[in-house]
Amino acid sequence: MNLNALFALLDEARRLSGHLDFVVIGSLSILGLAEHFNVPAGMTLSNDLDCYTRDDPRRIFDVLAALGENSAYHQKSGYYLDGVRPGLASLPSGWEQRLIKVERSGLRAWFLDPNDAALSKYARGERRDQRWIRAGIEAGVVSLAMVKSRFGSTNFLDDDERDQARQRVDADQAWIDGATGSSQEPESS
Predict the structure, then answer these.
(1) Which of these, 133, 126, 109, 125, lies nearest to 13 by C-alpha position?
(2) pLDDT value at residue 181
(3) By the 8 A CB rule, do 20 and 107 touch?
(4) What is the chain's pLDDT, residue by residue, as a tens digit (189 residues)?
(5) Residues 6+ apart with CB under 8 A from 73
(6) Using an 8 Å Cβ cutoff, are 117 and 30 in contact?
(7) What phi-psi label fits residue 102: left (phi over 0), alpha (psi between -120 and 50 degrees) or beta?
(8) In the chain, where do the E strands start and end?
(9) Is the whole-model pTM more than 0.85?
(10) Integer distance in angstroms from the first to the last C-alpha of the chain?
(11) Cα gap 129→25, rounded to integer Å
């Protein structure tokens, strides 16, 4: 999905719900930077837009029949809206103040900061989340140092989720250290 497709979908959601403000979480939140950053293709592979209406989060569920998975919109465009609750993702404190606003024709999309999105992906821990995070690290849009600084204020579901997220962060730190270490080794002659 790209930013134009995302706004086309949100425009339909606006038409159906009357709402102008949508909060985008998940993989496609990276599109909040698309106007200023060449987003790696590996970060935009998702075909579902995880979002909710900012002023009345439950209202997003009213449009799922028309815009959700297997809807006519999904069949036509290949993309669909996945309505979520604001508390679904494990996010660090202050995430709402870091939302990235993109506005088009009076329609406003509020995107998670990439480091906040990465934290939620570390908590979820699916393979596609790891690919997204590493693509972001390689592109310089996800900072492991920033992720670590926000880790302690993240509202993890429970201790197990927190501990597993910590292990995933440590694994990515080892991955970075390995890549950095191999690039600093002297070349053999």
Answers:
(1) 109
(2) 65
(3) yes
(4) 999 999 999 999 999 999 999 999 999 999 999 999 899 998 999 999 999 999 999 999 999 999 999 999 999 999 999 999 988 899 999 999 999 999 999 999 999 999 999 999 999 999 999 999 999 999 999 999 999 999 999 999 999 999 999 999 999 999 999 877 654 333 333
(5) 9, 12, 66, 67, 79, 80, 81
(6) yes
(7) beta
(8) 21-25, 48-53, 80-83, 100-104, 107-111
(9) yes
(10) 46
(11) 13
> 3-class secondary structure for 92-130?
ECCHHHHCEEEEECCEEEEECCHHHHHHHHHHHCCHHHH
Q: Both tokens of residue 69?
A: 């998975």
Q: Which residues contact 179 (CB under 8 A, 6 or more apart)?
A: none
Closest CA to 1 of 48, 70, 35, 40: 48
Rounded Cα gap, residues 32 and 103, in angstroms: 10
